[in-house]
Amino acid sequence: SSGINAEYGQHLSEVTQVTAHTMGEPEIVSATRGSECFVWDVETGLQKQQLRYNGGVQNAKYRYRNIRYGASGDTFYAVIVPIAWNNKTSSSHLVKYDTTTEIWTVIREQTVRGEPLAELAISSDESFVSTSSSNGHVYIFDAHSLGLRRRVFEAHGLFVTGLSFTSTHTDTQFKLLSVSADRECKVHNPHIADPVRFLKAAAVLLLCIGLIYLLFCLLQSSDLLPHFDDFDEDPIKKDHHHGHSHHGEL
Question: Rounded distance, CA 130 to CA 123, Å?
C-alpha cells in the first residue's frame, strides 16, 4: 500500500498553494500557477467547488497566489494577482470569502494598485490580515472590513518571503514578523495605525477650517455679512446717552 488515503486531481498546472480546514466538515483548498483554485472534500477527495475571481480588469486572467482559512473556518482569504503582470495597469486583490454558504461568496475586497502582492498571514483571533509586495512593502489590514491599518513602506530591501503573527501569554497584543531575501527578520506592531493616515486626516481638517475662515472673510468684505462694529457695544449705555441728550434740550 502506498499509504495515500485520497488523491486530489484535475489540476491542469503546477500546484503552488494548499491550505486545510479541519473544523466542521474537513476541507482542503488548492491553487495552481494557472487560474485554478479548488475546494476538496478531505474524506472522499471529491471536488466540492472551484473558486473563480470575476473582479479586476475585464478579460484578464488571474491566479490565486496565496490562500488561507480564517481562524474559525467561516472565512477564507486569498491574494489574487494577474497571471500576466503589467507594472502600469495591473493591480493585486486581497479577497475575503464567506465559506458558510454552499457556494462561497466574496464579502470583502481590497485592491492594491501597481504592486504584485505575494505573502499572506492572519492572526489567530482573526483581527488582522497581512500581505506583502515584491517591492518589500508590508500591509496590515483589519480582518473584518479589510480596511488598511498600516503600510510599512520598504520594510525590506528585497521581496518579502514570509509573514507570521505571534503573541505570548504575557503580552496578548500581536506582533507581525516579516522575513525577506535581504536576510533580515523584522517585527511590526499591527495595533498601531499608520501615522501618515492621521497626518493626512489632520491636514484635510485644517484645510477645511482654513476654507471656512476664508469664505467668512470674503462674505464679510462683500457686505453680505454685518461687520462687528455695526453693532452698538452696549445698548444700555446707548439709552442712557440718549436720555442725557433729551434732558439737555429741556
Answer: 9
> CA-to-CA distance for 148 and 168, rounded, in angstroms?
25
- Whole-number Å distance between alpha carbons of 89 and 86: 6
Question: Integer distance in angstroms from the first to the last C-alpha of the chain?
Answer: 129
Nearest C-alpha neighbor of 91 from the set 120, 145, 133: 133
Mean pLDDT of 108-129: 94
pTM value? 0.74
Q: In which element (H, E) is residue 217 found?
A: helix 195-221
What type of residue sits at position 81?
V
- Inter-residue contact 32 to 14 (CB < 8 Å): yes
* Amino acid type, 11: H
| pLDDT of residue 29 exceeding 60 | yes
Beta strand 128-133 with 117-122 is antiparallel
160-166 β-sheet, strand order:
160-166, 175-180, 185-188
Dihedral angle of Cα 231, 234, 240, 241, to the nearest 10 degrees:
-50
**Interval 61-71 mean pLDDT:** 95
185 forms beta bridges with 179
d(CA 147, CA 245): 72
Using the structure block, give the residue that is written with the C-alpha cell 464567506.
98
